[in-house]
Amino acid sequence: MPSLPMHLARYLGLTRAEGPEASVRLPALLLAGVYSLGARLRRQLYSRGWLPVKRLPAPVISVGNLTVGGTGKTPMVACLARYFQGRGEKVAILSRGYGGRRKSVTCLSDGETVYFKPPEVGEEAYWLARSLPGAAVYTCPSRYEAGLAAWREFKPDLFLLDDGFQHFQLNRDLDIVLLDAAAPFGIGQVLPRGRLREPVSALTAAQVLILTRFEPERHQEQLQSVRKRFPGKTVLTATIQPVAVRRYPGGEAHPLDILRGRPLLAFAGLARPEVFSRTLEDLEAVIKGFQAFPDHYAFGGADLRSLLQAARKQGAETLITTSKDFARLGDSWEGDLPLWVLEVEARVDQSLDSLMGRWG
């Protein structure tokens, strides 16, 4: 006779499998079912007004995702900030500040001066502050409090909310959700069984969907699937492209072809380090070794000594990492081998003017 947990799993629609395989998957299935119900309930509590939603004095555009990590939110926030700055708008970016020590409202940048570095602040917010002169960057777990401080001190024309699709406490005037073009909905399962933060049905709350890392020759089927499933949404595509590489110490910029044929050891602490590895392969670098660390990893002195030792042992003449990882190193490098830092930008394939019709 099936156990009570198995009955519950079937009631929740989590499994139809029988036998030993079902019992092995059951804990993850049950946890996923509970997580899914909790995520739906939380969204409904805010959308129906049962929990308070606060509004800032200027419009708020949220950039978020449905899956855990790896869709390019930070480069897309930078892309949008540059677009609105090009239209003459004053932009303030609001970030949770994940990975940073400072938990109160922090003005990381007022558009002219960057006041803090990791580990005092998170590397993503720092990267945005460093990359976007003229844009203010404020961090705080309460994006509303951060926004009020930015309004008092900077008077922005609009706010960009980094990683905001699940931040229901703050009203958004436009919700943009990024989906990975290769697998827009992952395997279709929420945490912990899959990578979804919420069920796919949550995308009905967004106005704009952007398929990132889009390759026209490979991802047409995924694009049409998203359009068919969400016919009322604006669906755009975007690439995240390497644009330059910088050599440290010094920080001088070089064209990407300088990596061709160069023996190097790569390292990164990302949600999807394989994307970085494939990018280096596309640039025809000679990868002598690749060391992946957990996402948002805080590198210590022992890690750097180990990386340098591995590079020398494997015949690499240089190390290479991402700009976000370099931010966690405090934008400094004192190793006895040079460090190259790959810089990337998000580029939307369509005109961003199409966003303006989705306000309200």
Describe this structure in words.
Residues 1-24 have low confidence and may be disordered. The radius of gyration is 22 Å and the shape is globular. α1 packs across α2 (20-47) and α3 runs parallel beside α4 (123-131). The chain folds into three domains: 4-47; 60-239 and 348-358, Rossmann fold, CATH 3.40.50; 241-345, Rossmann fold, CATH 3.40.50. The termini are far apart. By secondary structure, the chain is an alpha/beta fold. Strands 1, 2, 3, 4, 5, 6, 7, 8, 9, 10, 11, 12 and 13 form a 13-stranded mixed beta sheet that branches. A hairpin with a 3-residue loop joins β8 (234-248) and β9. It has nine helices and 13 strands.
What is the C-level CATH assignment of the largest domain? Alpha Beta
Q: Estimate nothing, just give the exact number of structural domains.
A: 3
Strand-pairing-aware structural class:
alpha/beta
Query: Helix and strand string, N-terminal first?
Result: HHEHEEHEHEEEHEEEHEHEHE
Radius of gyration: 22 Å
Strand content: 15-25%
Largest sheet features: 13 strands, mixed
Q: N- to C-terminal separation?
A: 54 Å
- Tell me, rounded to a whole number, the average pLDDT: 91
Unreliable residue runs: 1-24
**Assembly state (oligomeric):** single chain
Q: Count the beta strands.
A: 13
Helicity, as a percent range: 25-40%
Q: CATH superfamily assignment of the largest domain?
A: P-loop containing nucleotide triphosphate hydrolases
Q: Can you tell me the CATH architecture of the largest domain?
A: 3-Layer(aba) Sandwich
What would you call the shape?
A: globular
Number of separate helices: 9
CATH fold field value of the largest domain: Rossmann fold
